[in-house]
Amino acid sequence: MNNDIEKVLFTQEQLNKRMDEMAERLNKKYAGQEPIVIPVLNGAMLFASDMIKRLTFKLTVDPIKASSYAGTSSTGNVKIVQDIKSDVTNHPVIFMEDIIDTGRTLKTLTEVMRKRGAKSVEVVSMLDKPETRVVDFKADDYAFKAPNAFLVGYGLDYNGWYRNLPYVGVLKQAVYA
Ligand code: 5GP
Ligand code: MG
Ligand code: MG
């Protein structure tokens, strides 16, 4: 599996350091509140589990699953395929995502939670690919800026594989060619 990786971009140690910093900000911001933490499945599983362990305020975890598909026009469409169970009304919502690419998924999901009456909505992401954005969307925080390449590991998959790599890397083109 490691032979399929062109280059390691972010190690467990680098991720740990950034996750400590990101969690510290959240712990200050949400002390005394009861946010609903929403990991975006499946990709954010590893990042979210590591982040949640670092959080010290009272929270509930309620994952969501979304799928993105191209509609009849060139604009992608985002559908919730597994919704949260919680009522977000008057609760802060914190989305946890693996990577922001076009921005469509999180733009849609944040709008949905605002419409449902969330007290506030924010997004923390492991990675951000600012070059490939097609809609106007900014994460509130992310661990690292990522290049425009196909990345795997730490939750990110190719065809369901490589999520278990304890680092983020670039997949060799020969693997999917
Ligand atoms: P978007 O921001 O385009 O709506 O959606 C982002 C989603 O696209 C991510 O949650 C992830 O599932 C997928 N994605 C984007 N870039 C990559 C990448 O480099 N590698 C992998 N494995 N998935 C990616
Ligand atoms: Mg994702
Ligand atoms: Mg995927």
Can you give a write-up of this model?
- With 177 residues, this protein is of the alpha/beta class.
- It has one domain (2-171): Rossmann fold.
- The chain has four helices and ten strands, in the order βαβαββββαββββα.
- Strands 2, 3, 4, 5, 6, 7 and 8 form a seven-stranded mixed beta sheet that branches.
- The longest helix is centred in the N-terminal third of the chain and has 19 residues, at 12-30.
- The model has no long low-confidence stretch (mean pLDDT 95).
- The structure holds guanosine-5'-monophosphate (5GP) and magnesium ion (2 copies).
Short description:
The chain has 177 residues and is an alpha/beta fold. Helices cover 25% and strands 32% of the residues.
The number of distinct β-strands equals: 10
Number of helices: 4
Sheet/helix structural class: alpha/beta
What about the largest sheet? 7 strands, mixed
CATH architecture: 3-Layer(aba) Sandwich
Instruction: Determine the N-to-C terminus distance.
Output: 16 Å
Catalytic activity: GMP + diphosphate = guanine + 5-phospho-alpha-D-ribose 1-diphosphate; IMP + diphosphate = hypoxanthine + 5-phospho-alpha-D-ribose 1-diphosphate
GO molecular function: guanine phosphoribosyltransferase activity; hypoxanthine phosphoribosyltransferase activity; magnesium ion binding; nucleotide binding
Cofactor: Mg(2+)
InterPro entries: HGPRT, Hxn_phspho_trans, PRTase-like, PRTase_dom
